[in-house]
Amino acid sequence: WICKIVHFALVYAMLTALKIMVSVMLVIKWKLLSYPYINGKNRAYLEQMEQARFFFSHCNMRCIFCQNHEISTEGKGFPVTIERLAQIFLEQQARNAHCLELVTPTHYVLQIIEALKLAKKQGLSIPVVYNTSGYERVEILEMLKDYIDVFLPDFKYYSPDTAKEFSHAPDSPQVVKEAIDKMFALVGKPQFKDNIMQKGVIIRHLILPWYYKESMEIVKYIWEKYHDDVYLSLMNQYTPMYKALTHPKLKRKLTTFEYDKVVDYALDLGFKNCYIQQGKTATTKFVPHFDGTNVY
Hints:
The protein has helices at 2-15, 69-72, 82-94, 109-121, 138-143, 160-167, 172-187, 212-226, 256-269; strands spanning 19-31, 48-56, 78-81, 99-103, 128-132, 150-153, 191-193, 196-206, 231-235, 274-276. It has 296 residues and is of the alpha/beta class. α8 (212-226) links the parallel β8 (196-206) and β9. α3 crosses α4 and α8 packs parallel to α9. It starts with a helix and ends in a 20-residue tail after the last strand.
């Protein structure tokens, strides 16, 4: 299956020639207060930061609960040349963005590398974040070693059966494990400057309704493999959308009980480098509008 995905990505890259389909580019100001750092007392960073987030059209996964299905499955987006993308990267740095975040970039790796080459030659120096489903080939990640500073992979599933049912990718758990190993080998332990990560890996996990025990297996695996050499982000923002609206298990939101069970388990294991979410995050108001706004 992953061979089919990679083949699709390469063919799609050739079909799009020198252009990339960008769905939306957002400059986001946010406070890390919404992602408290677990240190036993839930102390929160107060540092305010700004990031430039680029959403790329299409995706190498087919998750039935995807909140960005308009771009991941339907392919909404607007063509941007490699040269223009490089310029946009530099413009965001000039606007004092703290980092560039590339969302679902896998199938545009060749073009993105060229854009980053151009931008770096002209002075791009802020960290570049690779926001990915985690369903990556090691060979592709190796190509990124001189261009990506922070890897932000999802670790969605521990069970192949769950991965098959919700993303049509039963090999996802093993592929993601190997991909994260490679990411860690490329960028190493977390490095910070002014409370902003300059190098490192942040592994995200979205807890799904009914599946908190599987989430605990993922948390256990990460702790036993990496301890606090990577950051863990536990998300409670699951919002039923797309095909999940009619799925018997996924059509409801996560409960506080389910989320707290996973967070408490992470604390009990010894996690300190972990972000959690508080407040009402399970809402569609956090889903971007893919209408071409800010694509220029």
